[in-house]
């Protein structure tokens, strides 16, 4: 997948990670911004607030199902995956196939998690962009097998894939009447 932001500058208020730790600069504070736009209903204002990296990781840590986007031989694909957040790194468990192929080549991927209240339109979305790599170190595999990561899809899922974050962004969306409900 091409088009991942380079380390030359900020993209949407997020600093790409450093080479030291997989999460690198992702833990540094960022400037919060907000905006509003009119949706299709007259006089209805929808507001969004850019989340801090800390808020993004907090939301990711509370979820177990996300979407992995990558490019295979037929083009872009987005698949639902179970995951766990491990020290600011997304970990998925998979079997043989396209996800493992992407990781074995160190492909750049996107990973997204969201929650939206259909009644109010309020919610949030977090996007992680980075490199997918297969975990092969025996001691690391032993440690990862102890994490609460139980795939729902059938079949043998004996491989672990790590998504090393380069960019993490998130937005909280509120609609009139939702009062920016942070429980969504």
Question: What can you see in these coordinates?
Answer:
This protein is mainly β. The protein has a domain at 52-174: Roll (Pnp Oxidase, Chain A), CATH 2.30.110. The chain contains three helices and eight strands; from the N terminus they run ββαβββαββαβ. It has helices spanning 53-61, 98-104, 138-144, and strands at residues 34-38, 45-50, 65-72, 75-86, 89-94, 108-116, 123-134, 159-174. It has a six-stranded antiparallel barrel with strand order 3-4-5-8-7-6. A hairpin with a 6-residue loop joins strand 1 (34-38) and strand 2 (45-50). The chain is globular, with a radius of gyration of 17 Å. The model is unreliable at 1-33 (pLDDT under 50).
What's the gyration radius in Å?
A: 17 Å
- CATH class designation of the domain at 52-174: Mainly Beta
Our count of helices gives 3
Read across the widest sheet, the strand sequence of neighbours is 3-4-5-8-7-6
If classified by CATH, what would the architecture of the domain at 52-174 be?
Answer: Roll
| Helicity level | 10-25%
Give the overall average pLDDT.
77
Which structural class do you get from the secondary structure elements? Answer: mainly beta
**DSSP summary, beta strand count:** 8
Low-confidence stretches: 1-33
Largest sheet: 6 strands, antiparallel, barrel
Q: What is the fold named in CATH at topology level of the domain at 52-174?
A: Pnp Oxidase, Chain A
State the separation between the terminal residues, measured CA to CA: 31 Å
Shape: globular
Strand content is 35-45%
Order of helix and strand elements from N to C terminus: EEHEEEHEEHE
CATH homology superfamily of the domain at 52-174 = Electron Transport, Fmn-binding Protein, Chain A
């Amino acid at each position: 997948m091409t088009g991942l932001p380079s380390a030359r500058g900020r993209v949407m208020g997020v600093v790409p990670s450093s080479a030291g730790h997989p999460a690198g600069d992702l833990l540094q504070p960022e400037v919060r911004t907000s905006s509003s736009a009119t949706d299709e209903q007259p006089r209805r204002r929808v507001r969004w607030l850019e989340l801090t990296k800390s808020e993004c990781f907090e939301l990711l840590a509370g979820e177990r199902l996300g979407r992995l986007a990558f490019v295979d031989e037929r083009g872009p694909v987005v698949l639902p995956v179970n995951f766990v957040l491990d020290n600011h790194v997304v970990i998925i468990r998979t079997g043989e196939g396209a996800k493992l192929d992407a990781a074995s080549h160190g492909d750049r991927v996107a990973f997204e998690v969201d929650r939206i209240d259909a009644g109010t339109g309020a919610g949030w979305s977090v996007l992680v962009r980075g490199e997918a790599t297969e975990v092969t170190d025996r001691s690391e595999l032993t440690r990862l097998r102890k994490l609460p990561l139980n795939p729902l899809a059938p079949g043998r899922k004996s491989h672990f894939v790590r998504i090393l974050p380069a960019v993490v962004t998130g937005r909280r969306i509120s609609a009139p009447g939702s009062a920016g409900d942070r429980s969504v």
